[in-house]
Every structure is written in structure tokens, then in C-alpha cells.
Design a protein that fits this description.
Helix content: 40-55%
Structural class: alpha+beta
Number of helices: 2
Mean pLDDT: 89
Low-confidence stretches: none
Length: 73
Amino acid sequence: MQTKVIGIILIVIGIIMIAYTGFNYVTTETLVDIGPIHIDAEKNNFVKLSPVIGGVLLIAGIFFLVRSKKSLS
């Protein structure tokens, strides 16, 4: 039963990693902080997801699903 759940989770994560190559998030950095004067800058950060790793996770998830079906028989 547990290998089936792990397999489904790996398949979902693998599909997401193949479909989306990455995502952005924004951080705010303080450039100048002199008394009442504050200058902030927003910085875009990109997190890259490898589709190769997504494919490996997808194959591993399929393996776990097949393995769970064989153990039930």
C-alpha cells in the first residue's frame, strides 16, 4: 500500500517538473538605510527545475506502482 502512494507522489512530482522548467520568486533587499531614508530593491530569483530529473522521478513512480501491483498478486 505504501509503495503505491510513493509511486503516485513521484509521478505527480515528475509530471510537474517536466511541465514547468522553473519558477520565479521576488525578494526585497535593503540597499540604503540611513536614518529615515530607506532604499529597497526587488530582486527576481529564478529556480530552475531539470526536466531530466522529472523524467527519472516519473519512471521511478511507474516502477513503484508496478511493484505494488505485483506484491498484491
